[in-house]
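Final paragraph of the annual report: two paired records, presented back to back.
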Amino acid sequence: MTFSSSVRGKRVPDSTSALLAEAKAILPEAVALRRRIHAEPELGLALPATQRAVLEFLAGLDLKIATGGATSAVVATLVGARPGPCVLLRADMDALPLQEETALPFASRARGRMHACGHDAHVAMLAAAARLLAAHREELAGSVKFLFQPGEEGYGGARILVEEGLLEAEPRPQAAFALHVNPVVPSGAIALRPGPILAAADVFRAELRGKGGHASMPHDAVDPIPVACEVVSALQAFVARRSYVFDPVVLSVTRIEAGTTFNVIPETVQLEGTLRSLSEVARSAARAGIERIIQHVAAAHDVTARVEIEAGYPVTVNDAACADFTQRVARELFGKEHVIAMAAPLMGAEDFSYVLQRIPGALAFLGVWPPGEQEPAPLHSNRMRLDEAALAHGIALHAAWALAYSERAPRSRPVAT
């Protein structure tokens, strides 16, 4: 990692050494905010109750607050006591369409909606960090933008905000950081890696059209069902034999729909699935392979195919210098035993990738393994729980990112993907 000559080798500023204790002191307020949001989850880009909770929590702080645009985003800016860089800290706000089954006293009151990805915790940690940093304004060089972002779960909220000028508005961020909780990582640990940390996610859909008929006379019909089965096998063989093992893709057919009753050969079969990849090279090759295989397998059986591939979020790529910087800050805050260097990326996806495409930064995972659980429910489970005590580590890291970066901004060293 390369730092500027004026800061190379320096420790995190002394003001950050007490941040964890301060974060623990403010933790009850953060937990209360998290539980309020958890009980009233909202989906998509319009999150009025969540936005209101954030604004009420930030009220009275020395922040410049902006809302509006096409979403319920909140952008709060803290201006430090002296000139310096601008750091963007981001938390996503939206929930998932799941029926909660945790039996928590603050469980979702909205049927079919749940904070199963920890975004309620993300909001609480960032809002509490804003309070903490406001108390350290005199020690802050530059400024901090606290972004509370709707629409991460498939709506591309980050992309919308970038298109609206989030990264061009003054003060312009020079680096961006985000935390994501993970209930299967040891509680309080920080896990990350340089380069790709999360995958690109695309959706593919296909309609195979044959000729319907009586199930007792398949020779008079063109049955699309065995063709669909062959397509699934061919797609899996493509991944196993044609994708590069060190630039992997994950391809899963997750929905097959056809037919109405036992004695009718249907005319059509609907296929749907997901493609995950870690580079644009692998992504392009896999998308071309999906199209080619479905079309040609169908044609071999006199079936017509219509294929649609919907581009999702791009690969989330951590700037190498910012990832190294994060590891150093976390080690000095929590001890090296609480920092995990991830050996490989995860194949989930994140729209924070749109921010990291434009400015250097890093996304890290915060372990929130629930105490007493041997096999905790993972993210996106309707039984997902978390260790709220670990949120103090997230509050402290957000604050330390800002204070430490203002003292020793790392030079960007992108990792090729």
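The closing record of the year follows.
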Amino acid sequence: MSLAGKKVIILVERDYQDLEVWYPLLRLREEGAEVIPVGSGSSKEYTGKYGYPIEAGAAAEEINVDDIDAVVIPGGWAPDYLRRYPAVVALVKEAFGKGKVVASICHGGSLLVSAGVAKGKRLTSFMAIRDDLVTAGADFVDEEVVRDGNLITSRKPDDLPAFCKQIIASLS
């Protein structure tokens, strides 16, 4: 259990991409990490794009960044909702600034833009938000997983094995 003692939060909101929440959640728990779904605070339970529900263990405003090791930002349409909550944006920005692992997949990159952490970073995402990332100053590349310092990014559900391997390696 290489991640025993590590605490990871996965951000959730309505219409999250089901695999991009559940695959990392279960994989990181399998490695021994404590993984907590954290919502915007708009609800206690959120439903994914394909109807799978998840209960938030906390709201973003309740999280002390000093108590966590990583933030995972899944895609789907959830990031478009998450970025509307100042507490969520502040959480991502603070975690990044304190050197915590910030891992984003698919449309999760839109939250990186709102948090102001994409500028000057080499990263990837789902192609639909490529222009948003480039406009925010990112060096966009089309690769299954990209690590730039404490920032880890991937493009789509097919990239989840490489995405999770990189998160685990970064936290080990």
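The longest strand covers residues 7-12. This concludes the annual technical report; the extension proposal builds directly on these records.
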